From TrEMBL:
Membrane topology label: Multi-pass membrane protein
Compartments where located: Endomembrane system
Keywords: Membrane, Transmembrane, Transmembrane helix
Xref: SUPFAM superfamilies: Sm-like ribonucleoproteins
A biological process term (GO) from this entry: cellular response to osmotic stress
Protein name stated in the entry: Small-conductance mechanosensitive channel
Length: 433
């Protein structure tokens, strides 16, 4: 027997089984039809027949839907047992199989309309419209679940930069889907051509663009964020415009949600990620380093040259002992032959502020909590009305907030007290309100 003959026999058997099923449904429909006709009063016969047959049809739909869902989900579980691909997990968790089951259940039930309602031909067009509308709803659910599965797939892959762009695309497609499926639903329900509906919207283009302005901007921003890889969900960012600093919780089409460090939540328009200055501080967490940039202001009147007595006292400080010995030798050599060399101002000399600056630098270089491979300096800033700021610029090797604050506090606690050893006066600036 040839393959064509085999296929012909299979289809012939299927047609026979389908015909038997239709005959069986017609018999049940007739039994319901004539039982109601015999038992019900004349005025209620037609209504009761329609309700009973419609209940029968919906029962068949629910039973078929359950059977198809059970079968498809079982197949998915078998596939997942033998493979752990993210795409299968994303499809299963998004219930794609349930949506496919709805299609089969609605399609098979629609074929039974003529068998169950063959004695009520006027109801066929109404039922056809109803089931066509159900097809539109089922397809829209499948469409939205496919978009959800796409998002889940990239989340499962851990591609957090790309997921931002994917969400922008999927959310735009969701809005487009709502519009298109609404048009199709109206077209099916009222038997209006979709082209007629779309044509009537041509004059409303400007209004539509105005209404969806933020949506369009959010879509563009999402694509930009995805391709530039400047931001992702989970990043620690700062936005000076809004005085916000926290972790990105979610980036969607219209708004971006940020959890502040005080456990409050801020939301900003997503398009602000493109048009506003954003500081991405996540690199500090990833490298486990965080910058210290803070100044101590000294009274200029406390600055002086280091005399012999102070030199003796400071020479006992281990961090600058070698520095002082080296400088002392160079100064002695440089002062040879200089008239009035006994006068401290003549020739090179050390100052208490300059020596303290070297001490602070050596203190940082010997601090186990400071990252030595990153920029490290102690520098003078512009003199102000309050005094001379001496800035500490370095990076801690622990970016955790509480540890960072502890390290920073320990450094400045030490330097503020150590300054007294150099006869330096720290300014206490009072603000007049």
């Amino acid at each position: 027997m040839s393959s064509k003959q085999t296929y012909f026999l299979i289809f012939a058997n299927m047609n026979e089984e389908l015909k038997d099923t239709k005959d069986f449904l017609q018999k049940i429909s007739d039994q319901v039809h004539f039982w109601i006709k015999a038992e019900m009063p004349d005025g209620a016969i037609l209504v009761c027949q329609i309700i009973a047959k419609l209940s029968l049809l919906l029962t068949i739909l629910l039973v078929l839907d359950f059977l198809f869902k059970f079968s498809f989900n079982a197949l998915f579980l078998i596939f997942r047992k033998y493979t752990q691909k993210p795409i299968l997990k994303a499809f299963y968790e998004s219930k794609i199989s349930n949506s496919v089951a709805h299609f089969f259940a609605i399609g098979v039930t629609q074929e039974m309309i003529y068998s169950v309602f063959y004695r009520h031909p006027k109801s066929h067009s109404i039922l056809e419209t109803f089931f066509s509308l159900m097809f539109v709803v089922a397809f829209s659910i499948l469409y939205f679940r496919l978009l959800k599965a796409t998002e889940k797939y990239y989340v499962l892959k851990g591609d957090f930069y790309r997921i931002t762009g994917i969400r922008a695309v999927t959310q735009s497609l969701k809005i487009l889907g709502y519009i298109i499926f609404s048009f199709i639903g109206i077209s099916v329900l009222f038997h209006i051509k979709a082209s007629t509906i779309l044509g009537s919207l041509g004059a409303m283009t400007a209004v539509i663009l105005l209404v969806f302005r933020d949506t369009i901007l959010g879509f563009v921003t999402g694509i930009h964020v995805s391709t530039s890889k400047n931001l992702k969900v989970g990043d620690w960012i700062g936005i000076p415009k809004y005085n916000i600093e926290g972790t990105i919780e979610d980036i969607n089409l219209l708004t971006t949600k940020i959890q502040n460090f005080d456990k409050t939540v801020s939301t900003i328009p997503t398009y602000d990620l493109l048009s506003t200055e954003i500081k991405n501080l996540q690199i500090m967490s990833e490298t486990n380093t965080r910058r210290i940039k803070k100044a101590i202001i000294f009274n200029i009147k406390s600055f002086k040259f280091i005399d012999d007595e102070m030199m003796v006292n400071l020479s006992n400080i281990n961090l600058i002992k070698d520095y002082l010995e080296e400088k002392k030798a160079k100064i002695s050599e440089a002062k040879k032959g200089i008239p009035n060399s006994s006068e401290i101002i003549n020739g090179p000399q050390l100052t208490n502020i300059g020596t303290f600056r070297v001490y602070a630098l050596n203190y940082l270089k010997n601090n186990e909590n400071i990252e030595q491979e990153s920029p490290l300096m102690v520098r003078q800033l512009e003199i102000t009305a309050q005094g001379l700021p001496l800035e500490i610029y370095c990076f801690t090797n622990d970016s955790k907030w509480e540890n960072y604050e502890q390290i920073q506090a320990d450094i400045f606690d030490h330097l503020l007290v150590a300054a007294q050893k150099f006869d330096l006066e720290v300014m206490q600036v009072s603000l007049k309100v």
